[in-house]
Amino acid sequence: MNALEKVNELNARRSAIEAGGGEGAKKQGKAQFSARERINALLDEKSFVEIGAFVQHRATASMVDQYTPADGVIAGYGTVEGRLVYVYSQDATVLSGSVGEMHAKKISKIYDQALKMGAPVVGILDSAGLRIQEGMHGLDGYGDIYIRKTLASGVIPQISIIMGDCAGGAAFIPALSDFVFMSNQHGRMFMASPNTMKDQADKETAYDQFASGKIHSEKSGMVHFVLESEEICFDAVRELLSFIPSNNMEDAPLSGAADDLNRVAESLNTLIPSDDTKSFDMKDVISSIVDKGHLLEIHEKYAENIIIGFGRFNGYTVGIVANQPKEKDGVLDGWAGKKAAGFIHFCDAFNIPILSLTDVGEYRTSVVEEQQGMIKQTAKMVYAFANATVPKINILVRKAYGSGYVSMNSKHLGADVVYAWPTAQISVMNKEAAVEILYAEELRTAENPKELRAIRMQEYEMHQTSPYIAASMGYIDDIIEPSTTRKRIVAALEMLVSKRENRPSKKHGSTVV
Q: Is residue 58 over pLDDT 50?
């Protein structure tokens, strides 16, 4: 065979590999894109470089005659907006994208290279789970992937995109990722198939109950973003990548579309209702202060009483954690604590400053929440704020009561800068409850308890809840005009840019997991 014939053979082999399992093997035509098309939709045009294209399974007894092009996973690297990104995409046309020994080794190799280069890893998941034919080799492969993901945690960003089935042990891959996206068209994530559940006659209905994007974005909290189509999903991943650094040694990329750093928002001066019992939308505050009014909200449909997401100030990425008084009066519960904690840990690991916006009453709970470990879940947020060493700024917007106030990035937990609006109310509890406790006997014997209660509440408000009292004690750095919030945040971020904070030397914390 001469040189040209060898080149032709190479091209023929590569074409066969790129065809995957073939059109006839596609999952009933469900996929919008093939595994390779998905990579190309994510990365910059013509930037993808494949690694391990010629890898196949190592022939076990039951698979000697089985052809597995690329062993069911396309892997390599490319760029997103010119930045290096490693990517792998499972091919459901090859043994349903199942994970075998060599399939797992390809993913592990991608992680090894990404860790050396300090670049994010994006996994596009479409797999029926473990490749049963390979037995223990497949289980060993799972372990290799889990170890790589654990080593990469806090070092490089890890993003999972669920485009088809993500079943069994494969579901630990998104569970160990920083951010999880799911296509609402065909994405499903589950540990056990309805086929193994004796009480499930209608399999498709069962999937809707525990495997869908709606369930995992609203109930389990496993999925951060659910998008209607694969194309929209890839655009959303590219946007997220634009907000975050490539590794823990870098800062987030600076946006060239910065807003006026001195912009004021007069609407904020009249946003807070005079009636304490009325709510307002904290998203109005956020959109008024971030660059171009844009917040990339995360976990939008999960624990809606707290808002998390990325915004920019003068072009720099900031992680935002804010109470939402429109939902459950903004109170903290276990779900909100869990949601916020993971986000705070990510920001701290990747050098992203944290801004909190506080309007929180006391913790509110129920018997069910107590039984589900609400205390432990909310403690996770306390730990995350206290543990974070990135620049931390807190704005007290309105209510700041009791342990809820302390938990929300207060000065007592180590916030670097705390500002309060003149509408802020900082105290152990709200005035109504405090007066009922402090003056119970006096109110019981008063001729006009209603009038006395009003007097005592006014006194309590003046001497206990006023932001000027907290400022006089040094717990607030300044009381600011709401309209100037944006420029005060920008100035604080500029001051904190060189922040260094030493903590006790240790392997890792052990009390909250």
A: yes
**215, 302, 339, 381 from 220: Cα distances, Å:** 6, 8, 11, 18
Average pLDDT for 191-199: 63
- Given a contact cutoff of 8 angstroms between Cβ atoms, the answer to whether 128 and 164 are in contact is no
CA dihedral of residues 99, 219, 235, 294 (deg, nearest 10): -150
For residues 427 and 385, the answer to whether their CB atoms sit within 8 Å is no
Ramachandran angles phi, psi of 261, nearest 5°? -70, -20
CA-based torsion, 425, 429, 434, 436: positive or negative: positive
| SS3 of residue 202 by DSSP | coil
Q: Tell me if residue 431 falls in helix, strand or coil.
A: helix
Which of 19-28, 128-137, 373-382, 502-511 shows the lowest mean pLDDT across its residues?
19-28
CATH class of 266-429+467-498: alpha beta
CA atoms of 334 and 397, how far apart (whole Å): 22
Query: What confidence score (pLDDT) does residue 325 get?
Result: 95
First to last CA, the chain: 61
Contact 361, 332 (CB under 8 A): no
Q: Which residues pair with 183 in a beta bridge?
A: 227
- The residue with tokens 């290279």 is 113
For residues 125 and 161, is the Cβ–Cβ distance under 8 A?
A: yes
Instruction: Quote the mean pLDDT of the chain.
Output: 90
HSE value, Cβ hemisphere, 13 Å, CA-based, for 360 = 29
Domain with CATH 3.90.226.10 in the chain: 9-243, 266-429+467-498
Question: Is 202 a residue whose pLDDT tops 80?
Answer: no
The overall pTM is greater than 0.90: yes
- Cβ atoms of 90 and 55 within 8 Å: the answer is no
8 Å CB contact between 132 and 63: no
Find the angle CA(150)-CA(151)-CA(154) to the nearest 5 degrees.
Answer: 85
Q: And the tokens for 469?
A: 């009292």
What are the tens digits of pLDDT across the range 445-502? 787 878 878 888 787 777 788 899 999 999 999 999 999 999 999 999 999 999 999 8
Segment (H or E) for 398: strand 392-401
Q: Checking phi first, is residue 404 left (phi over 0); if not, alpha (psi -120 to 50) or beta?
A: alpha
What is the rounded CA–CA span in Å between residue 269 and residue 262? 16
Q: Which CATH superfamily is domain 9-243 in?
A: 2-enoyl-CoA Hydratase; Chain A, domain 1 (3.90.226.10)
Beta carbons of 191 and 275 less than 8 angstroms apart: no
Query: What's the distance, CA 303 to chain centroid?
Result: 12
Q: Say if CB 242 and CB 288 are below 8 A apart.
A: no
